[in-house]
Write a structure and sequence with these properties.
heterodimer, A: 147 residues, mainly alpha, 5 helices, B: 109 residues, rod-shaped
Chain lengths: 147, 109
Amino acid sequence: MKRYAVVLIVALVACAASFGLTRRLSRPDTGDQMAWLRHEFHLNDEQAAQITQLNAAYEPICANHCERIAAARDRLRTLEIEGKKNGPEYEAATADWNALRAECSRATRQQLERVAAVMSPDEGRRYLDMIGAKLTKFDHSKPFGLQ
Amino acid sequence: MNPRDSLSDLLRSWRYQPPAEPEFNAQVWARLQEAERGPAKLSFFPAFARWSLPLAASITVIISAVLGSTAALAYNTAERDDRMASAYARSIDPLQRAPSAPMHHQHRH
């Protein structure tokens, strides 16, 4: 009985040690996003090139949205600091902010679908599920979305 | 005639007649040779029985180590995928990319 207990303990130690060592030695590579995308969704050269092109075309749109979001957030914050939270100006800024969020979410979703369309149907669905879950959810019940 | 004398005569005349065993000599020689060779070697099953516990223990430890490594690799891959998916989503989602200064600081000043 004692021998079995010793074997069990040694086996558990071996399991834990190999888990720790492997975790340490094979640190996940968090390098190039495109390389990861290519590997993860089994893209061929043509698909990878198309997605690179789509991302490049979307980049200025995304940058423009970023600027507008930052400006809208600033405007809302300024009005809050100035104590104009109940005024018509704040209401207008809130409406603008919600419209902008909706616009950005729509554009991001469209970009996601454009990229998914380049992939094989199965991989495209997986891509939408995986990346879609990481996008900011547009929720009207929380209009400001301020972080 | 005294009955005791007749019994004595009978016993005196009795001779043991063993049954014929033509293989007897050969069997004795075989046993002698076997004794000279020493104790018989263990057959497969007793040998297996002797090594079964260390063998099972070694296999258990090796399998445990392999399982540990496999679990770590799977964990690392899942972690990397999650991190890369988050980074990729951030790169195409302006709502995540846009800078936002913390509100509390602005209230204090």
